[in-house]
Amino acid sequence: MTRKELIEEASSEAYAVMGTRPGKSRRRGQCQIRAAISVSMTPYCTTTEIGNAVERDRSSISHYTTNHHDNIEYWEGYKTIYKTVQPVISDILLTGIVHNQVRSIDERIKALEGTKELLLLELD
After folding, report:
1. Rounded CA gap, 124 and 118, in Å?
2. What confidence score (pLDDT) does residue 98 get?
3. What is the per-residue DSSP string for 23-40?
4. Could you say which of 9, 39, 89, 106 has the lowest number of CB atoms within 10 Å?
């Protein structure tokens, strides 16, 4: 699975857990879900990648991240939403990224083994 597909899957699953779909609505609940999903993705993704997943620009993602602690403390309902979507996103992205890294390492090992064999043949 590509990185983009992983990010889209994580976003879709988080929206599904919250019983909604991505969209440009400015309703409080939709904004809170969008912000919580965005902040949950920040350890794994760039602001541009997150923006594409939640249909916002990267400056909006930076805004969500900057205000996250205040949102948890003062924005009624946000903390619950964040605690609901964060594990879903972390599970999907962490697992997927690790699998992609392992696959990349395996491919590199195969290439190095091929190079080793060629070098050994040259020695003989």
Report:
1. 10
2. 86
3. -----HHHHHHHHHHHHH
4. 106
Identify the CA nearest to 9 among candidates 101, 95, 89, 97: 89
For residues 63 and 57, give the distance between their C-alpha atoms in angstroms, rounded to a whole number.
10
pTM: 0.81
Tokens at 45, concatenated:
């993704």
Q: Pinpoint the alpha helices (H) of the chain.
A: 3-17, 28-41, 47-54, 58-66, 68-74, 78-123
Q: Is the pLDDT of residue 91 over 90?
A: yes
Contact indicator for 40, 82 with CB cutoff of 8 Å: yes
The band of 33, judged by pLDDT with boundaries at 50, 70 and 90, is: very high
